Amino acid sequence: MGRAPCCEKMGLKKGPWSPEEDEILINFINLYGHGNWRALPKQAGLLRCGKSCRLRWTNYLRPDIKRGHFTREEEDTIVNLHETLGNRWSAIAARLPGRTDNEIKNVWHTHLKKRLNPNHDSNDNKRQSKTKVDSSKDLKKEQVQQQAMKMPVSPSESRSSEVSTVTISQNNAKVCTTKVETHEDHVSEIDEIFWSEVLSADNSNMADDFQAVGSDPPLPKLEAVNGYGSNLYDTDTNMDFWYNLFARVGDFSELPEI
DNA sequence: AACGCGTCCAACCGCTTCAGT
DNA sequence: CACTGAAGCGGTTGGACGCGT
C-alpha cells in the first residue's frame, strides 16, 4: 500500500485556499464531478494534491453544507450521539445533515467538552464577542457556496462522476452513492407517481433539474440532487424523499439508520 | 498602542478501510 | 487470496482573531 507523496515533495501548494482556487475547484466539480480526486487537481489546473481538494470540497465548498453556528438542538444531538458512538465523527456527522465531521469535531473539542466538564471555563463572553468575526466568515462562506449552487451543470458529465457526486453527508453519501450506482439501470423503472411527486415539488428549480436530462420517465440529474442536498436532507420531509427514492430504486434495508 | 494569552477552525498528517484487479 | 491505489477518517497543528492588561 504505497503512501502518496506529500504535497511538498510533489511541489504542490499547501495551506489556506485562495478564492481563485476555490472558484477553480467549484467550477471544475460542477462541470465534471469528482470521480477521481487524485487526478482532479491536475485536470483542473490546481497546484494541490487530491486529498487537499477533497477536504476543501467536503468541509467547505460543498453546496449542501449548513452555515452558521450550531443550534442548541444540534449540540445536544452531538452530545447524545457522542455518548453512544464515541469519537466517530463521521458517524455523528451522518446524523446531522449539513454538518461535516471536521466541524463537529471542532465544536466538540472547543465547546461541548467544556460544557460537559464544568471544571473548564467555558469563557462564553469571549465566544460571544467572536461571533462577529465568525459571522463575517460565515457570510464569506455563504457567498462561495452560493456561487457553487449557481454554477451550471454540464449535461455531458460522465455517469461515473454523476454517481460520485451524490454527496450528501459522509456515511450517508456512501450509501446513497452505492445505491444509485448499483441500481442505476433501474432508476428509469421508478414509477411515474414518484416522478410526478418529484416534479411537483415546491422547489421548481429542483423539478427543472430532474427534467433536464430529458429522458422519459425523467431521470434525476444526480449532480442536481447534490446541489439540492441540503434542501432534501434538512427536514423529515426531505428525508422521506431519499427514503422514497431508494426504497423504490433498491434495497431499503441498506439505508442508514437515522 | 502594544503585547501576551486564549480560543477557534481550516487544513494537514498519517493510519485504516474500501474497491478493483 | 494478495496486492495496489484511492478514499475516508480521526487526531493534531498553525495561524488568525479578539480580549485583557
Automatic annotation (TrEMBL):
TM helices/strands, residue ranges: none
Location within or outside the cell: Nucleus
InterPro entries: Homeodomain-like_sf, Myb_dom, Myb_TF_plants, SANT/Myb
UniProt main location, coarse: nucleus
Organism: Hibiscus syriacus (Rose of Sharon)
Residue ranges with Basic and acidic residues bias: 121-143
Annotated ranges, domain Myb-like: 9-61, 62-112
Taxonomic classification: Eukaryota, Viridiplantae, Streptophyta, Embryophyta, Tracheophyta
Molecular functions per Gene Ontology: DNA binding
The entry's keywords: DNA-binding, Nucleus, Repeat
Source taxon at top rank: Eukaryota
Record field: compositional bias (Low complexity): 152-166
Entry keyword Transcription: no
Gene3D superfamilies: Homeodomain-like
Nucleus recorded as keyword: yes
PROSITE patterns: HTH_MYB, MYB_LIKE
Domain HTH myb-type: 9-61, 62-116
Region ranges (Disordered): 114-166
Protein known as: Myb-related protein Myb4
PANTHER family registered for this protein in UniProt: MYB FAMILY TRANSCRIPTION FACTOR, TRANSCRIPTION FACTOR MYB14
Pfam families with a match to the protein in the record: Myb_DNA-binding
GO cellular component: nucleus
